[in-house]
Design brief:
The protein is mainly α and about 240 residues long. It contains 12 helices and 5 strands. The chain is elongated and about 95 Å long. Pfam families: MerR_1.
């Protein structure tokens, strides 16, 4: 596909001025010239997609330039596109659920009397605005876990506290795993370090990161849960003995 700059801008949502700026900063190759008209190709389209993606995640233009140069050094820009797909694809497919407000309130009766609970759940993105004044549940499994906790007597406010705390803790775990991957996979490729993996090998390793992280965390969590439950049962037994 060949496009003039205005066509490229319309397809990507990036202004012609920014396209020229990216070209001047080395983020985009020069267009193919025919006479005085420059024509852009699918590679420009793909690069702009990656540039926008990385900018949205806080990368500076210089960092993006170095990343693009490193990942396309082998002449196969598909490496970087594959990386974007890996980062964007969910680890496990879970179909969102659409519910009405009354249906949600049936599951969480406490929210009928305290609207701030729903507001907080939306802030935590447990529920989101859906079509036709309905609500979207991004993770029905997570929502059902909240339902079960409230059924055994845990107040909904405490359930939300628990979710927020767990999300913060697991965010730290995720950062640790990704930090290891960046240190030993991504950065060596970006810097051209001797002995660095090829882009294909680095992407293959990154693709395995999430299942490996999950398998590593699961037994630790189970072990800690067993210990915590045993401690709670022991405290309960002690309390009952003291009542006799």
């Amino acid at each position: 596909m060949r496009m003039r700059i205005d066509e490229l801008a319309a397809r990507t949502g990036v202004t012609s001025r920014n396209i020229r700026a990216y070209r001047e900063k080395g983020l985009l190759p020069a267009p193919e010239l025919e006479g005085r008209t420059g024509f852009y190709t699918d590679e420009h389209l793909q690069r702009l997609d990656i540039i926008t993606y990385l900018q949205d995640r806080g990368f500076s233009l210089e960092a993006i330039r170095k990343t693009l140069d490193a990942w396309s050094a082998g002449g196969d820009f598909s490496h970087l596109l594959t990386l974007k797909q890996i980062l964007n694809s969910p680890f496990q497919t879970e179909e969102p659920e659409v519910v009405s407000v009354p249906e949600l309130l049936v599951r969480f009766p406490e929210a009928m009397h305290d609207a701030t609970l729903l507001t907080r759940a939306m802030r935590l993105r447990l529920i989101e605005p859906g079509p036709s004044n309905q609500l979207l549940i991004p993770s029905p499994l997570l929502l059902q876990a909240g339902v079960e906790l409230t059924r055994i007597g845990v107040p909904l406010a405490e359930v939300l506290d628990l979710f927020e705390r767990v999300r913060v803790d697991l965010s730290g775990v995720a950062d640790a795993f990704v930090g290891i991957a960046e240190r030993f996979l991504v950065r060596p490729v970006e810097l051209g370090t001797d002995g660095a993996p090829s882009p294909s090998d680095a992407i293959g390793a990154l693709e395995k990161l999430r299942p490996l992280a999950l398998e590593a965390v699961k037994p630790i969590l189970i072990r800690e849960l067993v210990t915590a439950v045993e401690d709670a049962v022991a405290r309960l037994a002690t309390a009952l003995e003291q009542q006799d």
